[in-house]
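forwarding from the other thread:

> can someone predict this with FE2/S2 (inorganic) cluster?

sure thing
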Amino acid sequence: MITVRFITPGPNGPLQDREVEVPADGRSLMKAALDAGVDGIAADCGGVLTCATCHVYVDEPWCAQLPPPSADEDTMLDYTADERRPNSRLSCQIALTPALDGLTVTLPARQY
Ligand code: FES
């Protein structure tokens, strides 16, 4: 198990700052978040890379720990509801491994 931290930003600091224990068995960050009841990830397509509603902002220095987005993920990142930033990723494309223990992501204000 590893710990992943999900931050939901608010106007005056985090609205929610939650650490969850998740298996590091290669399942996606999106699935782990949904299984843990984390709010703010819709994942309408179930992880087949056609919705962009699993958008997250990966906190530094974790960006460098992740493989770069595939061409398909990069394309879908143009369709996120909230602004795309250099650290934007689709959580369904992030496979959880032991090396990601402590991974921290910030959720966008909206997924639609
Ligand atoms: Fe649809 Fe990630 S769940 S693109």
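Residues 30, 43-45, 47, 49-54, 76, 90, 92 surround FE2/S2 (inorganic) cluster (CB under 6 Å). thats all i got for now
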